[in-house]
Amino acid sequence: MLRLHVQVIPPFGKLTYKVIGQAMHESGRMVADVLTAALNGQVIPGMSGPIHRPELVAKIERHDLGLFEFTVTAPDEIYAIEQGRPPWDMKPSLINGKRSRPLKDGSGRYNIIPFTHRNEELPGAVAEMAQRLTLSEVVGSYADSEQKIRNTYAWGTDTGDTSNIVPPATHPQMGGMQGPYTHKASKFSNMYKFSSGLVTFRTVSTHSPQASWWHPAIEPNPIMNPVEEFVSPMIESYLAAVWEQELSHFD
Prior knowledge:
This protein is of the alpha+beta class. It is built from five helices and 13 strands.
């Protein structure tokens, strides 16, 4: 676990320290709030770019260790964000994942992968198309031949081919592949609207081209040090003011 730890050594005296303890509590909450903002897209000075991982916010832990000490602990997943990752081939894990299924001709397996899209990332023309989409819904479920539960859908309209607006992406050579790889579909082609948001579906199978499901490298993005460096001066200033106020009672 990644942890920010703050400890204050109190001076001797006849203070009750209750106000100081509350200030330490508020300081811990301040650290947790800044870390939450960093995981929700706010770029803290020192970070290399935005991070959108709101599911990690619930895993942040804040603990008061008596009146003069607190810790804020980040989830282990932050290690991977901070360290980054070289390119990797997603195809093996996807075609053998828990949601995969056998091809009808028995020649391998395939998987249908949903990709969600945020409205703010859509080009203007695609955003206009998205606004006109009718809603798609999950209307039922069934057990397939492997007893995996599958959804049935009432499909609304989709965006169709958007390659004239956003051409299919081309990725550089990765994983020893020869030359770059260009995807067959535009990123926003055949996008559907659900109550939960906008989704495209792409199929990966045993027969997918070797270079088609390589994930680009993820560059390291520091979080904890930037959060600490950003919030420390604020905490120090706040605690100093509280101590000064409390000690003034004994002048």
